[in-house]
Design brief:
The complex is a heterotrimer of chains A (290), B (428) and C (315). With 290 residues, chain A is mostly helical. In chain A, 72% of the residues lie in helices and 3% in strands. Chain B has 428 residues and is an alpha/beta fold. Chain B contains 13 helices and twelve strands. Chain C has one domain: ABC transporter involved in vitamin B12 uptake, BtuC. The radius of gyration of chain C is 20 Å and the shape is globular. Chain C has a two-stranded antiparallel ribbon. Chain C is mainly α and 315 residues long. Chain C has 14 helices and two strands. Classes of the chains: A mainly alpha (290), B alpha/beta (428), C mainly alpha (315). Chains in contact: A-B, A-C, B-C.
Chain lengths: 290, 428, 315
């Protein structure tokens, strides 16, 4: 086996892990705080991508700047979905929650189809083609930037949860909703904020990833499945888990593509998922259930 | 009539329309026989995947079919049937075989006397039994999987079925492969170069695998001077192709032969450029993603000089150019190409069949189908359109197109070429 | 109540001779998906172990029967039981891994999704089972090959599947097994404390559910005549399987049937009237909104709501 190929695979996989991490951060926050599985996660991200594309194509705003707008738009969407729908079924049986989010996913996917058409779109950023060469191995600049931004975003979110009142209340509500109510936290408001912030992360992720990944209205499902994998492997509700999990899954897939057949690389991440589910279901960084 | 509450926020007009239409549908659906208007029309069920993952080509097919029907009607309809107009009953398979089957039944129930569709081979396969069971002729306008017609032919040969109702006007996977290998060899010879190492990279979906297999089988049979040194595939749609391209680069290719879909093409071609893979050219055995208007707009210089062996309109035919212009307007900027083109031609083939059959009786239509010798197609053909003993048209052939000046042009075979090809591609 | 059921069955049996082939096809899918939903209901509804990977069993069963028919000439009438058994074996593996390792709720969901996806990727890549091309079954119309020239024959097969599975589930509900399932769903720890072997009960439910679903896979293969890995192992099929019992009422006997009778016609109507215009996808938006509406207004499912409505009327 060509060592250059292995080295390149490791590096590409590592950097692409930043993309995966971004995808997972919003999902893990929502689940961590609310214990709601957002099956519409991938479709929300696709909307973030399309919004970034609109900004880029119509207003000429580069996605690396425009992601703030996408985050804000998705924040609002998250609030609406949470207040209007999710909140009402907090006590409903699990299968009803799943059905609700599946319905939301279907609506989002086809709304995107109606609004934007079925063609794959990709945002062109001047950085899309930039590469740095280190001998025989190259670094994809766009992915490097996304990796950096993923780290910054995760750190920012971490600080938000650790240092701000709202953030701390979210963590309290995540750990113990009843106890949080007892000490006077407005749990409804916290849940809405958590869903909103989670959705904002998803929107930002979509925008930042849009120059790298071509997307179509039907891309949502695949993104959802990948994000669920990462979140479980990293640990539901854990931000460092989402970050590390993303990198781990990406590197594993890349090595799968190098050593096995690239069309089977998904098997590697699913194998990893099953291993984690069986031996450490809380995930690498998750707290084991008390 | 039965009231039906259709969910929150339905305004009265929609509600009345829906209730009325539902009542009407219930009335019609309840009758097994066809109760329809007395005006002379021929109803053709036109079923494609206009939603779901293959929505883009499905919508192109539908538009091609609609434009063709309009053109036929504007020219006087089916003259031998008293100027009967063609009426399309549209169906959406949602890219799901069970929906495809239900749609086929629905349009037949609504009076369809002929069927055309369905683009996705899995959906088409689900419609085949309906055509055979209900004895409604089906013209497959686009679907490359060989078994679709071959299985029906076999069934008739072995006496399990009396009549074959399924016919296809599109190259099969086998034919794609044979032509691709032929064109590769001919173009290399004409260019005076002898590349040895070809790396085949393909999307691992139905079309991609079918094409890859056809290409490899044809290569083995023809045994040319160039080798397929490595085959790399990826799950479609992919999120990342950097490792795949690294692998291709490590195989030291002279040529990369991609079989893509639009999404993977948008990842693959820039990646090949980024990784500075040094090759004579990118020559595809035939796939979408390498010529559409949207793809050219997205990929720009990464698509320049890329060749692909695909079914293509013959733009030397002035009618084809006219239709293409109209198509650009109707579709909001898309190119008249493989999918829209073959659906367009498919409708004209059916019109020709009806002219000769002078009736919509199934077996009469099948007889007329078998005798087809149609030369009015807009696509590149190797001769008149006819159907062989399996039900396929061996004259439905691809042509090698190349993106030159950010436009797709036919460059091979010579007699249909609009321009000379550029190969090897210029060094950057 | 029994008279009503008999009357309903009689009506259903007579329908194919009254309505057209299109409605017969719609009903076939209603019955078939009700059957798959009923099979899922055993482990997902009654036992509360939510599987979103049941398509894997459809796929395994269908592929097994199709391959045995094509390569060994084995009639699918026999092949379907082998397919079911293979699916049950897979179900046992998944069930064991999930239940033994204590995976509940969403974690179990994701385990089932992961297995279904693995099956899908394997089927896509292994040429011996057709790869991405899938398997195409030749249409012969020969009943010995589980094929029928007449749509109505399929109708009766699908009807039998639906009625048979419903009878089975009703019988389960009335016996101790059913009580265990419901108890496990409500409070598994309490069950264990009372000495119930929850692992064994859940495994039984899973094996039964996957076996039935696998048998259904054969019907799928020989009615649609093609098996495509993405369609037959994919998440969208798993979703189709679970939404009917959930909408109708998970854990009830009539839930999957009612859910199927509600959703299938709605999907058909939605597609017929909203998919004609230029807005491709509108009918699916409508369908999605309907699903959301069901969750918001019928949070326990349609069948319990119907029961409440019926009971409120004076006797």
């Amino acid at each position: 086996m060509d060592p250059t190929l292995i080295g390149q695979g490791l590096l590409s996989g590592f950097l692409f892990g930043g993309v995966y991490s971004l995808m997972a951060v919003g999902l893990t926050l929502i689940f961590g705080v609310m214990r709601v599985v957002n099956f519409a996660h991938g479709d929300m991200m696709v909307w973030g991508m399309y919004l970034a594309w609109l900004l880029s194509a119509r207003a000429g705003i580069d996605p690396y700047l425009g992601f703030v707008v996408c985050a804000a738009a998705l924040f609002l969407l998250g609030l609406v979905v949470q207040r209007g729908l999710v909140e009402r079924i907090v006590d409903a049986p699990h299968e009803m929650q799943i059905l609700l989010m599946l319905g939301v996913a279907l609506v989002l996917e086809n709304a995107a189809l109606v609004a934007f058409g079925p063609d794959p779109a990709r945002v062109r950023s001047p950085l899309s083609q930039a590469t740095l060469w280190l001998g025989p191995i190259f670094v994809d600049v766009a992915r490097l930037l996304t990796f950096g931004l993923a780290m910054v975003l995760t750190a920012a979110l971490w600080l938000f949860l650790a240092r701000t009142d709202l953030g701390r209340t979210m963590r309290a509500a995540a750990d113990n909703p009843y106890g949080a109510r007892v000490i006077g936290a407005d749990v409804r408001r916290v849940y809405a904020a958590a869903f909103g912030v989670g959705a904002a992360c998803v929107g930002a992720a979509g925008a930042l990833v849009s120059p790298i990944l071509p997307f179509q209205p039907t891309s949502g499902l695949g993104l959802s499945v990948t994000s669920f994998n990462i979140v479980i492997i990293g640990g539901m509700g854990s931000l460092p888990g989402a970050f590390v999990g993303g990198i781990l899954v990406s590197v594993a897939e890349s090595m799968g593509a190098v050593f096995l057949s690239p069309s089977m690389k998904e098997l590697v991440s699913f194998g990893l998922l099953i291993a984690i589910l069986l031996f450490r279901p809380a995930g690498l960084f998750g707290k084991t259930a008390g | 009539m039965s009231e039906r509450r259709t969910g929150r926020g339905t305004d009265r007009r929609t509600f009345l329309k829906t209730a009325g239409a539902a009542a009407g549908a219930a009335a019609v659906a309840g009758f097994p026989a066809v109760l329809r208007a007395q005006a002379p029309t021929v109803k053709i069920g036109t079923i494609h995947c206009v939603t779901g993952p293959l929505a883009e080509p499905g919508q192109a097919c539908r538009l091609g079919a609609q434009m063709a029907a309009e053109a036929i009607n504007a020219a006087g309809g089916i003259k031998s049937m008293g100027g009967a107009k063609i009426e399309l009953i549209l169906g959406d398979t949602q890219t799901k075989p069970d929906v495809a089957r239900a749609e086929a039944e629905r349009v037949i129930n609504a009076g369809a006397q002929l069927l055309m569709g369905a683009f996705n081979s899995g959906d088409t396969a689900a419609i085949v039994p309906v055509a055979q069971q209900r004895r409604v002729p089906l013209l497959v306008d686009i679907s490359a999987a060989d078994p679709i017609t071959a299985n029906v032919a076999k069934s008739v040969r072995e006496g399990q079925q009396k009549v074959q109702y399924v016919y296809r006007n599109f190259p099969t996977g086998t034919l794609f492969g044979q032509r691709a290998v032929q064109y590769f060899t001919e173009i290399f010879k004409e260019a005076g170069v002898s590349p040895k190492r070809v790396v085949l990279m393909h999307a691992n979906d139905l079309f991609g695998q079918n094409q890859a297999r056809g290409f490899q089988a044809a290569h083995k049979a023809a045994n040319p001077s160039w080798e397929i040194v490595e085959v790399i595939s990826w799950p479609e749609p992919p999120t990342d192709l950097s490792t795949e391209v690294s692998r291709a680069k490590a195989a030291k290719p002279d040529i990369i032969a991609p079989i893509t879909r639009p999404a993977s093409a948008q990842l693959l071609l820039p990646e090949i450029a980024k990784q500075r893979v040094d090759i004579m050219g990118i020559v595809g055995p035939g796939s979408p993603g390498l010529y559409e208007a949207g793809q050219i707009a997205a990929l720009k210089e990464n698509l320049e000089y890329v060749m692909s062996s695909v079914p293509w309109p013959n733009f030397k035919n002035p009618r084809a150019r006219q239709v293409a212009e109209e198509y650009v307007k109707r579709s909001g900027g898309k190119t008249f190409d493989t999918n829209s083109g073959y659906s367009y031609d498919g409708m004209f083939v059916l019109a020709d069949v009806l002219e000769r059959a002078k009736s919509t009786d199934s077996d009469t239509v099948v007889d007329a189908l078998k005798k087809t010798r149609f030369t009015g197609g807009l696509m590149v053909y190797g001769g008149p359109i006819f159907f062989n003993e399996i039900g396929d048209n061996p004259n439905a052939i691809p042509a090698m197109i190349e993106i030159l000046g950010q436009k797709p042009v036919v460059v091979w075979p010579k007699d249909v070429a609009a321009e000379k090809f550029v190969f090897p591609r210029p060094k950057r | 109540m029994k008279l009503l059921a008999l009357l309903a069955v009689a009506v259903l049996a007579a329908l194919p001779w009254i309505v057209g082939s299109y409605l017969v096809t719609v009903l076939i899918f209603i019955f078939f998906y009700a059957y798959l939903g009923q099979a899922w209901n055993i482990v997902g509804g009654y036992a509360g172990q939510l599987s979103v990977g049941h398509a894997a069993f459809v796929g395994v069963g269908g592929y097994a029967a199709a391959l045995l028919s094509a390569h060994a000439g084995l009639s699918p009438w026999i092949g379907m039981w082998i397919g079911g058994a293979l699916a049950a074996a897979l179900g046992a593996v998944i069930g064991y891994l999930g239940f033994r390792f204590g995976l509940r709720g969403f974690y179990f969901v994701l385990l089932t999704v992961a297995f279904a996806e693995i099956c899908r990727v394997v089927a896509l890549n292994v040429d011996a089972v057709g790869g991405a091309l899938g398997l195409y079954i030749t249409f012969t119309g020969n009943p010995r090959q589980f094929q029928f020239q007449d749509n109505r024959a399929y109708y009766y097969v699908a009807l039998a599947l639906m009625l048979g599975s419903t009878a089975l589930v009703r019988s389960i509900e009335r016996h101790r097994f059913g009580a265990y399932l419901t108890a496990i769903r409500q409070d598994e720890s309490a069950c264990e404390a009372l000495g119930v072997d929850t692992l064994r009960v859940k495994m039984l439910a899973m094996i039964l559910s996957s076996f039935l679903t696998g048998v259904g896979g054969t019907f799928y293969a020989f009615y649609l005549f093609s098996l495509q890995p993405n369609a037959v192992f994919g998440i969208p099929l798993s979703v189709e399987i679970i939404i009917r019992p959930i909408v109708g009422g998970a854990g009830t006997v009539m839930g999957p049937i009612l859910g199927s009778f509600i959703l299938s016609p709605l999907a058909e109507i939605s597609r017929t009237y909203f998919a004609q215009g230029g807005w491709n996808g509108l009918h699916l938006i409508v369908y999605g909104l309907l699903l959301i509406a069901v969750v918001l207004f019928l949070p326990q499912g349609a069948y319990p709501a119907l029961l409440r409505l019926v009971r409120r009327r004076p006797a």
